[in-house]
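Tokens as discussed.
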């Protein structure tokens, strides 16, 4: 499991990624690679060999859990705003989080968990993207990556 966050409020322009600045629980196994101060996470498609070739997984499975507070900045028109997870720049539509604040700087909490598959032996980049038509304010973003396919059961 790995966790990344940002304790500084930020303005995110349309189409840009939410920035993360700290790693309270960094990934020390190489499954999630991240450069501090960016919003891009490189997910590894490493899958363990498990006996017979027919029974090997075709992809690595990540459970991605994101949460943040979002608002409309002063000077913008009140209307719906949204963020979503994106894989290699392609928005995962089922992860779109939409809110309609009643006024500027009126924060809403958004969160979403999603299963993300990365092909065996490949890497893919995951970001949290502003899918709105206007800039948004983002406060306290937090993202957690888990690998349930590697869970040990007894």
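Sequence:
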């Amino acid at each position: 499991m790995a966790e990344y966050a940002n304790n500084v409020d930020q303005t995110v322009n349309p189409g840009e990624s939410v920035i993360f600045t700290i790693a309270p629980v960094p990934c020390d196994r190489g499954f999630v690679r991240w450069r501090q101060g960016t919003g891009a996470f490189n997910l590894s498609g490493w899958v363990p060999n498990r006996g017979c070739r027919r029974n090997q997984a075709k992809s690595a499975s990540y459970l991605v859990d994101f949460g943040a507070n979002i608002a409309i900045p002063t000077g913008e028109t009140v209307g719906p705003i949204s963020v979503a997870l994106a894989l290699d720049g392609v928005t995962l539509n089922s992860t779109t989080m939409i809110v309609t604040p009643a006024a500027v700087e009126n924060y809403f909490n958004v969160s979403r968990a999603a299963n993300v598959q990365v092909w065996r032996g490949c890497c893919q980049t995951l970001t949290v993207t502003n899918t709105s038509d206007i800039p948004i304010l983002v406060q306290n973003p937090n993202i957690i990556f888990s690998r349930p396919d590697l869970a040990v059961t007894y």
